[in-house]
Amino acid sequence: MARRTGRRPGNPDTREAILVTAREVFAERGFDGASIRAIAAGAGVDPALVHHYFGTKDQLFLTAMNAPLDPREVLPEVLTGPPDEIGQRLVRLFLRIWDSPAGTAGVALLRSAVSNEWTARLLRDFVVTQILRQVTTHLALDPAQAPLRASLVASQLVGLAITRYILRLEPLASTPAETLVTAIAPTVQRYVTGDLTDVFDR
Amino acid sequence: MARRTGRRPGNPDTREAILVTAREVFAERGFDGASIRAIAAGAGVDPALVHHYFGTKDQLFLTAMNAPLDPREVLPEVLTGPPDEIGQRLVRLFLRIWDSPAGTAGVALLRSAVSNEWTARLLRDFVVTQILRQVTTHLALDPAQAPLRASLVASQLVGLAITRYILRLEPLASTPAETLVTAIAPTVQRYVTGDLTDVFDR
Question: Best mutation site among A151, A166, A198 for testing chain B: the one with the most B CBs within 10 Å?
């Protein structure tokens, strides 16, 4: 456990202690329920030091779960443009990120979430609070339908990541990204904006 | 390593030694390249003993990878019936199996495949040789298109299993199976029999 006094900013032990505590608190209480104050108290440091090292609660969350990137930096390019092409933009961006160096961190994160219930909680919370909320708000989806639509999208994209980058199932693993965009974008488009009356009327 | 002599059939050490060797040989050479003879030699036993314990090579493969069930026992109900409803039958069967006690073994298998490259190889080989070959043959799919179509199906179904049973993303994790059949069957149907000209012409 890190001690509060006598450490200069940037001390690696203190940083690491804050991150360990942050993972616990985020996993236990969820992103919304966690506070910088509680994390600081758990790590035995001043809240100001947590802000100093990690910035906002969002930024601390991204660092704590080793997120390969900040969704807020890339989501605008998906959300901007014709709504009936959002499936295409989303699958294209998804593949571009996973095919890039950030994909290595993505593989590590996904592997960890599959084998570890705590990381799974963090990842769930990450997807819901950092990605889906923004998408739902931006597209003004029916709030009664948005959560299931979003998790259907997640089911296809998580499956794409697992089969292409982890299980490496051929020929999907070596198919050019743009071919996969053509194949998978209609699925994502239907989940986001398609008529799912028969799904929601059941 | 098991010894050949002085063991009666059913000896747990010998059985386990055969299974350990079988996993190695299947992972190294693939299902098609592996032989009962090579596995028996690796385990230091007579091939007849391998057959005696485990039956055919297919059955040994299923046992070696802790497959929750034999695809040949359940695939006929997917393959029999109108071809334009195969998506529905496949997603329904998939969810029925994963929602059953066999689902627990499925979760263990998928977790292991995601964290372990050798199990991933076994699972890939399992999917290709035990499931996809049968489906492709039965539906008489264009051999040039069948492998990508099949791996697109795998991407959606693996993603469904991971998000519903391992990450437990809500509301998908607690949505009734028949609602998910309605939502996801059209995706699978398109991947299997839909017009993917724009995908294959790229």
Answer: A151
d(CA A144, CA A124): 19
Question: Could you check whether the bond before residue A171 is cis, i.e. omega within 30 degrees of 0?
Answer: yes
B83 and B162 together in one domain: yes
Domain containing residue A29: 12-64
User: Is B2 inside any structural domain?
Assistant: no
What CATH code is carried by the domain that includes residue A33? 1.10.10.60
> For residues A78 and A86, what is the distance between their CA atoms, to the nearest angstrom?
6
Q: What helix, strand, coil percent values describe chain B, rounded to 5?
A: 75, 0, 25
pLDDT (tens digit, 0 to 9) for every residue of chain B, 202 residues total?
A: 444 454 445 677 889 999 999 988 988 888 888 999 999 999 999 999 999 999 999 889 888 888 878 888 888 888 899 999 999 999 999 999 999 888 888 888 888 888 888 888 888 888 888 887 788 888 888 889 999 999 999 999 999 999 999 989 999 999 999 999 999 999 999 999 999 999 998 7
Is the Cβ pair A155, B172 closer than 8 Å? yes
Q: Which of B159, B134, B126, B146 is nearest to B75 (CA)?
A: B134
**Residue-averaged pLDDT of chain A:** 88
A1 domain-assigned = no
Q: Which residues of B touch A198 (CB under 8 A)?
A: 182
Neighboring chain A residues of B151 at a CB cutoff of 8 Å = 163, 169-172
Distance (Å, whole) CA A188 – CA A167: 21
Structure tokens at B34: 């592996």
Query: Chain A residue with minimal CA distance to B156?
Result: A156
Judged by CB atoms closer than 8 Å, whether chains meet at A176 and B151 is answered as no
State which amino acid sits at residue A78: V
In terms of Cβ atoms closer than 10 Å to its own Cβ (0-12, 13-18, 19+), residue A64 is buried
Burial of B152 (0-12, 13-18, 19+ CB in 10 A): buried
